[in-house]
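agent> fetching stored inputs for the 2-acetamido-2-deoxy-beta-D-glucopyranose docking request
agent> found them:
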Amino acid sequence: MRFLLSLTLPLFLFLTPSCSLDSETNSPAYKFVTVSGEPTTLNASDVIQVASFEECTGKCEKDPVCVMAYQANSSDPCYLFAWNSIQEVTRNESGGVGTVAFKVFTDQPSCELNSPFLLNGKVYPINPNDTTNYLWKIDTSEGGWKITYIDNRIVDSFTCANFTFNRPYEDGCNPECNITMVQVWAKPGPITIMYGKNDTVETWTDCLNMCYNEWPCNSVHYDVSTKFCFRFKVGMVTFIERMTASDGNHMAIKLPMNDKNCKMTTDQLLDNQYYLVAPAMYYPQKRMYFRVQTTPKYYLIKTYLDKDSTYQGTTLQGCPYMSMASGYWNELSKEVFCYRHSKQPGITQTEAKELCHLQDMELLTDKYTGAVSSGQKGEWYIMEMSILQTDLTTPVRTGFGFPGMNPVKSWYGLEKVGDKWTWSMPEFRVFKDEDMPIPWAVGTGGSGDTCAYLHWGTGADEYAGYDFIAAPCNSTDVDGFSCGSWQQEYMDIKQYKDVTAEFGYEQDCCGFSDAEWKELKASPY
Ligand SMILES: *[C@@H]1O[C@H](CO)[C@@H](O)[C@H](O)[C@H]1NC(C)=O
Ligand SMILES: *[C@@H]1O[C@H](CO)[C@@H](O)[C@H](O)[C@H]1NC(C)=O
Ligand SMILES: *[C@@H]1O[C@H](CO)[C@@H](O)[C@H](O)[C@H]1NC(C)=O
Ligand SMILES: *[C@@H]1O[C@H](CO)[C@@H](O)[C@H](O)[C@H]1NC(C)=O
Ligand SMILES: *[C@@H]1O[C@H](CO)[C@@H](O)[C@H](O)[C@H]1NC(C)=O
Ligand SMILES: *[C@@H]1O[C@H](CO)[C@@H](O)[C@H](O)[C@H]1NC(C)=O
Ligand SMILES: *[C@@H]1O[C@H](CO)[C@@H](O)[C@H](O)[C@H]1NC(C)=O
Ligand SMILES: *[C@@H]1O[C@H](CO)[C@@H](O)[C@H](O)[C@H]1NC(C)=O
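agent> prediction call returned; pasting tokens
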């Protein structure tokens, strides 16, 4: 109560002059009824830093679509709720903590607002002159207050509910809503490749719309404090780190809709659903699709290719988009595996292993110990090592691995179990350890070390081009980590043909025509 007093007292004093003015002219205006309570969810609000609650309501007053403002305490940010973004407020007696200001339109003097009257059964407009559209009604309930929204427009500018949280939308299955933007409080997580477009823009809405309007954009991040709007093309973001509203990080994922997912809630859209890349987004490959999943810590975007896809004549061997194949699919059949080298300086082996698992992979097993050196292309087209360093400026491999770095240290799937060093996926190995001993770096390793990283480049074993160094699993002296898996076909995922069946759309197989290449290369990013 003391807190509330100190908060409202200066506000009251400040507003005294306008109070008498109001009663004199008796002109209706937007005012705020302040109560002790808390919105039931913040996840559709706009968060801003303010010096006072007065500034918070001031921002809401200036924004025509704002219907409510909230602050937990004077050190917490201010949350602004746009029309249709909040349904319920819990009163203090029912456990709601903080201060809520309802925007009302009234001719009552601001210092004598009759809150029981104004907050029970009254309807308010966004535009005082508009009596049918963008209305909201506030009702008093046992636990607090309920807000309902009234809109009688024939669908016009407010299409697809402006991508607000409360899905499904009434018009969500209309053709004009065939691409949606799912908004989350989050920031790009580990191994994000900062490849895309970056601009400084004033608001999150502007940033969101940029991504929506740009064909290459697959996901977008907005930092409220810096106002940087970074748009990512497909494949660049795998881990989206979940945050809370007060962290000031917005992200949105662009998703194509079909007859089925247009009826889903926002949470369902993010819960293990598959989406086609084309035609909604720029496709650096044909026959691409992606899966979105939700974990307690992350939203995951995993990008796949049809197993028959080719890239400029080279087959991609049925591996996920952001990984490479260890050999030709047809030549070696099931011996082919997929691998992904990821730059993440300072990561521990324990964390690296977890990030591999979240990608349905294991820390990488060295397939051909000692048999390859950098850049060597044998009959098997071995790329496991050569791709470590090179940032090939092809669409497929942008930002892959450790561009420009030499030497490179990367966690591998080699762990000491009892007395024996054991590979994470021994079935990947072409040669037995007895026939082709692990190339340990000379004079490295300690008796207590149970993990190992690959050491490639300058200073490494000259014959193989690399060696392994034993290290404590919590060591942070690495540049990143390497994961491996069998091909998509052996993963428990939906295949391209099953996804296209849901969308009713299939791309040609497999390469691009010259005209198509020209068009794709003209794409802005
Ligand atoms: C948003 O809030 C609702 C209600 O509290 C909750 O059920 C839902 O899981 C939240 N969604 C996200 C994405 O945080
Ligand atoms: C202010 O509110 C936030 C959010 O509820 C809470 O995390 C924080 O501890 C509060 N701070 C104080 C000083 O009460
Ligand atoms: C609301 O109730 C809590 C206890 O549930 C109390 O600590 C707090 O001071 C009250 N007032 C406000 C403004 O949150
Ligand atoms: C409402 O209508 C009046 C008279 O046409 C006009 O002067 C005023 O600007 C309008 N108000 C808004 C908020 O559009
Ligand atoms: C919805 O989006 C359109 C276009 O960006 C904008 O003009 C309109 O004001 C938005 N409506 C609401 C209620 O946010
Ligand atoms: C985005 O642009 C700003 C301003 O040019 C720059 O300071 C910032 O580092 C850029 N962010 C990224 C991630 O490139
Ligand atoms: C959305 O619909 C328009 C026509 O209404 C069509 O041109 C476009 O290709 C569709 N986009 C997707 C991703 O289905
Ligand atoms: C790693 O763990 C050991 C023992 O568990 C501890 O002594 C050491 O400080 C840790 N090192 C780092 C870099 O965290």
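agent> quick read of the result: The first strand starts at residue 29 and ends at 39.
agent> awaiting further instructions
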